[in-house]
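== Fold encoding ==
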Amino acid sequence: MTEVEKPAQNSGWLRFLPDFVRQRLSGRHGLQAILGNSAWQVADKIVRMGVAIFVSLWVARYLGPHRFGQLNYALALTSVFTAVSNLGLDSIVIRELVKFPERKNDLLGSAFVLKLLGALLTLLIAIILVSILRPGDKLILLLTALSAAGFLFQSIPINLYFQSKVQAKYIVLSANGGFLLMALAKVVLILIGAPLIAFAWAGFVEFVLAAGFMLIAYSYNRQDILRWKVSFLDMCSLLRESWPLVFTGISVMISMRVDQVLIGQMLDDKQVGLYSAAVKLSELWYFIPVSIAASTYPALVDSKKRGEDLYYRRLQQLYDMLVTLGLAVALAMTILSWPMVRLMYGPAYAASAGALRILIWSGIPVCFGVAWSNWMILEGRAKMLFYFQLTGAIVNIILNLVLIPRFGIVGSALATLISYWIVITILAAIMKPQRKGLVMLGKAMISFPTLFRTMAMRSSS
């Protein structure tokens, strides 16, 4: 039997599972790869979440709402332009690496140059914008510059190579190396009574360390960054397909972060700190749907080639799982929001609870949206995705301008929630090509009470 004909072996972790689970997964090597990859990504986020909860909450308590608000104002302003730094290339490059693995050096080299140029542009835009919005505020300027400079080290696209190979463990180990070292550094900074700017430097160094560890992992896998090639034709081809995703990404980040910028402009930095606490708690679990969607993306690409029935069946299963997750988290956090805020942030942040109760329901469209975006890209509808997100961003800005003066940070939370739902319901209903996605969302929403009833019947039997 030739090497090509040898049957693939079951993943080693399968032996630790119960027999009935092992039997269902045995021989399903594609599913095993997805589950293993998802497990690494979820484990990464769990480690980060555990450490980050402890460290970030300690940092928030140490800084207080005002200085915590200054730091998050700078981070929010920078994150609006995250899509410019990566030029919307990630999912497209991963798709091309899956389809044409033999062209990895051309694709990675071209993506690196494009992402580096995007990172430099982001740094320039961030500095100019903060100079206009906060003239004379040197602290905010320096905080913003350090935050944006980190994108320069994220431009090395090695993580895209590992994602295309469904090998998230190398990304996890590299990112966590920098994260854990800087988490320890932040604890030291708190103990020595360091100023606010020191924490911004720690965030910048984390990007540097993660990039260094990623290069080591790439070399460990017998890959060489010096073999990368820059192809002008590839750069043009990638940009031609990715440019709508740049504006889509900007629209998404405007929807997610413009509220903090507007609160800082219309209210004060203390209110930014209070609102940021609510945002961080409401987004604490977003890593789960993002990790699941990222890990299943290569499988969706493959299933689309094998047949439409398999493709849409897998897509509906993904929607069902993610939307059910969003509903469960929203219901739980609505009940626990007030004690959660006081327990984690302390009495100084108690006013964040009202915004948290509203923001947590934005998780449902976020869960659906991460899978929906992959579907739109696979269907070649990236431009339409941009129009959806742009509309949501415009609605978000308008509602924030109207509601913040009347209701403060609670008004901003309402603006975010309404704008998210408008994108995936009203617009999808109006635009005929997207109605299939809306129908799939409806089926996913229905699956939650069905699952709940099934679980209740089993527990009572």
